[in-house]
Design a protein that fits this description.
The two termini are 18 Å apart. This protein folds into two domains: 71 residues, SH3 type barrels (Roll); 30 residues, no CATH class. The protein has no helices and nine strands. The strands form three sheets. Strands 6-3-2-1-7 form a five-stranded antiparallel sheet, with no helix packed on it. It is elongated, with a radius of gyration of 17 Å. A hairpin with a 2-residue loop joins strand 8 and strand 9. By secondary structure, the chain is mainly beta.
């Protein structure tokens, strides 16, 4: 199956603690079916000090399952489902809401 979400896409979170928030995709992990969204799903990790680095509480952005996010249409700025269409022999994504090909 082709990946409907790509790096630098704008998405909205559909469920969980960050429901309704939007952000840009920083990384897509197809093997795990997860995406890392900028500024969302932040967790706190307690790191022990080492000789090289200081210890403390570090905030990290963790991956979200890609079924929990939905792409925002570039034309209408509304959440949309994604389909595919062939244009000039190349497979392109198409927004279901507006019909915009991108």
């Amino acid at each position: 199956m082709a990946n409907k979400l790509k790096k630098d896409d704008e998405v909205v979170v559909l469920s969980g603690k960050d429901k309704g928030k939007t952000g840009k995709i920083l990384k897509v992990i197809p093997a795990q079916k997860k995406v890392v969204v900028e500024g969302l799903n932040i967790i706190k990790k307690h790191k022990k000090a080492t000789q090289d680095a200081d210890g403390g509480i570090i905030e990290e952005t963790y991956p979200i399952d890609w079924s929990k996010v939905q792409l925002i249409c570039p034309a209408t700025k509304k959440p949309t489902r994604v389909g595919f269409v062939v244009v000039d022999g190349k497979k392109k994504r198409k927004a279901k809401v507006s019909g915009e090909v991108f």
